[in-house]
Amino acid sequence: MKNIDKILFATDFSEASKYACKYAIAMAKQFDAKLLVLHVISELDVPLVGLFPDHYVEAHIKETAVGSSKMMAGFCNRNFKEFENFESLILTGIPFKTIIDTAESEDVSFIVVGTHGRTGFEHVIMGSNAEKIVRMAKCPVMTVRPQ
Question: 92 in helix, strand or coil?
């Protein structure tokens, strides 16, 4: 078995992520591993270039990045009071792909991600980043569903 020294925890700041965060911290403590806390700004949340004036697109991208930074700081302040061996990252891309790519580039031992547990029509429309990560990641993935 591979030595577990770095864990990637992906968050969208939802209740599912808050719950999964507890597991990510527990695993990092158990293995004395560094925890990478990743939030992905979805490219789908950024207006498509060409549909809006450039100044609007640039302002929206900047506003989204500033908002995500504030949310990450608040999330880390609330959840990592007793755990200091972490690094936070905010990237832009397609969430499941960016998470998988980051796991590979950072050579993480495994990924922890929350799942919303959507089913039926909502699952078809919204898709499941967690499901895609489980299917495509080259390392083990722990999915955590809130109680």
Answer: strand
